[in-house]
Design a protein that fits this description.
- This protein is 37% helix and 17% strand.
- With 234 residues, the chain is an alpha/beta fold.
- It has one domain: Rossmann fold.
- The strands form two sheets. A seven-stranded mixed beta sheet has the order 3-2-1-4-5-7-6, with helices on both faces.
- The longest helix is centred in the C-terminal third of the chain and has 18 residues, at 215-232.
- The radius of gyration is 17 Å and the shape is globular.
Length: 234
């Protein structure tokens, strides 16, 4: 590891905490607006082993909010760029990139192996529900992002169990999808800000295009990372 990288962290969590993080492992699903910042937090905290999963490539529209997206990475695979950045920060990190979309078919491969925690930063409801179902069944401690788009108020961000979330439309749909699942191992980051706008555009596939600032997804992502780090330090 780069000399001095963990000096400031170690002042706060001690040598034992630093060793715990170095010996810990995490899966990060999604390397976009929320996931990119969550990944950044885990890497810089010194988490020793990470699997990052994303089948997409960066586009120019990602430049406004995705920390891994630059004019040099537009058109490149997100998982590949994520691994490169991780090694630039911590050359000793054990990081694996899976260039996969999260689907019911790929979830078993994504969760394969022994992992301490899962950070979920994907936003397609059906696939997200399948990932969370499988994670719950496996018993892996999971930190999951709800909807960060269309929000302006960072003070409205909340942390809590899925079953106790409120206001967030994505969380409401997931509660319904997972009503028969024990979600006790899932902690959510969500917003209680009431949405006043609706999607006004659709992409070439007919999917709604949601407006987003750089700031709110960053708060979501770093909050996910912080919750995961606190868990890994226990």
């Amino acid at each position: 590891m780069t000399d001095g990288m963990n000096d400031r962290t170690q002042i706060l969590i001690g040598e034992e905490g630093t060793r715990k993080l170095k010996a810990s492992s995490a899966i990060v699903c999604g390397a976009g607006a929320v996931g990119g910042y969550a990944l950044e937090g885990l890497i810089r905290a010194g988490v020793g082993k990470i699997r990052v999963v994303d089948g997409d490539v960066f586009s120019e529209s990602n430049l406004n909010r995705q920390v891994l997206c630059t004019t040099q990475t537009v058109g490149r695979k997100k998982a590949e760029v994520a691994c490169e950045r991780a090694r630039l920060i911590n050359p000793d990190i054990d990081i694996e990139g899976l260039e996969l979309f999260i689907t019911p078919e790929t979830v078993p491969e994504i969760l394969e192996g022994e992992w301490d925690t899962l950070v979920d930063a994907i936003d397609t409801i059906g696939n997200k529900a399948e990932l969370l179902k499988a994670a719950s069944a496996s018993g892996i401690r999971t930190f999951s992002s709800m909807g960060a788009a269309m929000h302006l108020d960072t003070t409205a961000v909340r942390i809590g169990p899925l079953k106790k979330t409120s206001v967030c439309p994505m969380a409401a749909r997931l509660r319904k999808e997972l009503r028969d699942v024990d979600t006790g191992n899932i902690t959510c980051v969500y917003s209680v800000e009431q949405l006043s706008l609706k999607p006004s555009e659709r992409d070439e596939h007919g999917k709604s295009v949601l407006g987003s600032l750089p700031t709110v997804p960053a708060v979501f992502g770093m909050t996910l990372a912080n919750e995961a780090i606190k868990y890994l330090l226990q």
